[in-house]
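Crash report, auto-generated. Payload:
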Amino acid sequence: MELKNSIPSGPIAEKWDKHRFDMKLVNPANKRKYDVIIVGTGLAGASAAATMGELGYNVQVFTYHDSPRRAHSIAAQGGINAAKNYQNDGDSVFRLFYDTVKGGDFRSREANVYRLAQISLNIIDQAVAQGVPFAREYGGLLANRSFGGAQVSRTFYARGQTGQQLLLGAYQALERQIGAGTVKISTRHEMMDVIVVDGVARGIVCRDMVSGGIESFTADAVVLATGGYSNVFFLSTNAKHCNVTATWRAHRRGAGFANPCYTQIHPTCIPPSGDYQSKLTLMSESLRNDGRIWVPKGKDDDRAATDIPQDERDYYLERIYPSFGNLSPRDIASRRAKEMVDAGHGVGERRNGVFLDFEDAIARLGRDAISERYGNLFAMYEKITGESPYDRPMRIYPAPHYTMGGLWVDYNLATTVPGLFAIGEANFSDHGANRLGASALMQGLADGYFVIPLTIGNYLARAPRMRVGDDHAAVKDTEREVKERLDRLMSVDGRRTVDSFHIELGKLMWDACGMERSAQGLRDALKRIPELREEFWSDVRVPGSAANLNQSLEKAGRVADFMEFAEVMCHDALTRDESCGAHYRVEHTTEDGEAKRDDENFAFASVWEFKGVGEAPVLHREHLEFENVQLSTRSYK
Amino acid sequence: MKLTLHVWRQDGPNDKGRHERYEADDVSEHMSFLEMLDVVNERLTEQGKEPIAFEHDCREGICGSCGMMINGVPHGPKSLTTACQLHMRTFHDGQEIWIEPWRATAFPVIKDLVVDRAGFDRIIASGGYISIRTGSAPDGNAIPIPKADSDAAFDAATCIGCGACVAACPNASAMLFTSAKVAHLGLLPQGQTERWDRVLAMVDQHDAEGFGNCTNHGACQEACPKGISIDYIAQLNRDLIRATLRAKPVEAGKDA
Amino acid sequence: MRRVATLYRTTVGKKVLMAVSGVVLFGFVFVHMLGNLKMLFPAADGHYAMDVYAEFLREVGYPLLPHEGVLWLARFVLLAAVGVHVVSAVQLTRLSRAARPAGYAKEESLSLSYASRTMRWGGVILLLFIVYHLLHFTTGQAHSTFVAGAVHQNYVAAFRSPLVFGVYFVAQAALCLHLYHGVWSFFQTLGLSHPRYNHLRRPFAAGFALVVFVGFLTPPALVLAGVIS
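Recovered output after restart:
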């Protein structure tokens, strides 16, 4: 596997411009002769499809939902960063770039991040022009807030529904192209595999989720915009259907998988209430702007929060990190919460959370001001828990939330399989070992609106054309493999439900490869995962038929892929013998108990090559050069 | 608590369908409604039966996937709450719960509680957008928008496209859905250029999909988990009338 | 023309026709109710106020227009309005039935009011009532002691019967409900909405409906009670 990152030469601020000039263009009249497949309709997929359709390509887009608007980008709450410097508080493209590289704990690629910061400006303009109702000031100009520990106010937001509004903007742009006939959409189609002919991606095989039919689609290029894999933990803030199947299938076909162990844990989620818990709900990080986090000093304290006097409360973030306090970065806030709960200071019936208390903020600003800021979040919390955060503190606990790892891509967002591209959360490119708040939306839209529509032209203009008919041997073979796998799933007819396996895998992964990882724990997990996979394939029960809508079968296919994927995740976590960003190895801590990076040995992106199920994957390294930022140790004290 | 469920089961679009009765024991009040169904489904699977098909995804009340009639009310008895955010503490021990799919000609049942809502996408495709070429947008602050206008547009833009309005409407009208998008875009300066063509096209598509007409019952507003107001329907009506009466200068003389 | 055609073709356009024809009918009903209040006026010069008023309606506009010219013009407009109202209602009802052929096994009504749910049957009742009413007071076939032109006398004779009063009471109740939802719907359908005044639309509709109800039923009630003879 050759890792050519295709970073243009020259000063970082000029790379993207230079690259755009150097790219080969497709003649406008020829664009409609090129077929492009896009899988996924979240921010990245929808914006890419809309833009490429508009450019004139013949686009076909796929989603397993009933509508493109359901993609999980819709659930992003907080906001989207852009280096507009509308607040005149010292922000700039370079500062956003710097903050992102630093926030990613120096494990991302400088050139990509710089481009992201540059494009952030255009995204806001585009979204506003589409009618995205961002928050505004009374003067009618766009409002900003500081978010996720940033020292400048660069986050644009739409109440607590920024993802929804941005996705609807992209969705409407996509529907416009569908109406105009430049984009064709197949809803309720799940991608089951990539068709690779002579090493080049030429199409995909899908399952029509209503009829159960296995259908092949061929094209000149395939773009995966299929999101992240946090659901490997079963309990995460991801939507129930989020899965690794598309990227994993691409990986099996030769695409390198980069940094799978970089999974972000979000500090402010509602803790599980029982064994039936199906997912976790995130409470926007913005709550930490006014809420104070604490636990009782004593262990197993049964008193109601309001009965615990001040001097028996431990505001541990304020105590340990006096300058950042409750606004400490996500990984730090998460780890400290886990520490407190593990030490017996947990709160709530199941002792599985910490308090996020608004008592002081309400006293200081008044109930109305708090309601204006967080009313919808408080209402959501009350719906779920039956408790009002106005009267008693919220209970929060960290939960898996976002995955920085993904398919390895070069500067053009091309994977190691020619013709196969990955955008948005599905790739690994911009966030390094930890993603800053309000950067996911930015990256998805940057990739979709502004990067892939150009770089794919460069690929198409250079790549040799080859028509792959529906009856090509590779198409038929891939279809057959997909059918065989589905038949196998249907025929096991064991005793256990798909979910029971998923829950077991999730717990295993959370314990071994979640917030804290240890060499021993990972080795044990690497022993246990193949066993569990074996049990799955011999004891799973998928009721119903493969020839119509079968949600159990859909889940089974996804869980089967998680069972394979989990292994490479643990391999990655084990190999990365350092702590960095969200990847925290207990063996590597500073004296203060913080993550201890090892730049000398680990300043690279790990890229894994698939060698077969149960075979050890092969590690390749892309070394990361830092020419524009100084590697430093993060300190938030 | 223990509950008795009467769930609509339908094998496919052409199946007649029927209600089936299930006993749900050990329901915790902290469960969400969908988690309660998960537990029922796990048991059905263990018994070798097919689980109940229902749509869901984010389970945070924002993706709009879930939706079912729960005791005759879309998304169940709690106002401003989607089925996924409805928790079992809303119900009491021993209660009987009827669970049915959305019913409308324009929303054919695919299986059990799953219906086809693609008509909504086609309504948006017919005009529910602002035509802006990627990259051609002026600076985000080039057009100041009064906060009140922006907020009003936002209120309309919170629609999650779940279909509860259609399910609640005795005429299966999708006017609340359509008007929310017409209002969202029509309230913003960026949306003015296409305002009149947009409303004509979207209402035309709404009707072509087989949704019924609005008779101003207001049931949609009560059912809407996002609290979208039927005032937007009045705005849509007004825009449609104005779009009809308003001849563009370029059309003057051609409209005879 | 395309736009007009679109408007008519759409369900909203049909509703606009409902609303416009409806408002003609509200106007008529209101004026009719005011006219009926003449029953409360004392007779002067041996002529009942009601009869004078009826004569006025026949002669208004003369000699610019022929005898009963305005009356026939009004009748024509009203007939057209009723026609448009009924045809649109039938079309819309059929569309609604097609849009929602199946109901729910368990259904909770979320509609704003009882009135909104009874518009269709209420409309049918009103249509039947109008036919009866015309036969009763205009052409006289349904009136046992009908004398053409003697409006006051016909009126008093009719409402001495509790049965006739009952029929009119039911019809007025139906009209009241129909107006309550209809007047509010009129604002909504024509898009006459403004955040500052929207909250007044329902009270206005209720007030209008109630005034018409009380206005129409007061004279017959007084006849029945023997106050008017």
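Post-recovery validation: Residues 518 and 586 of chain A are 6 Å apart (CA to CA).
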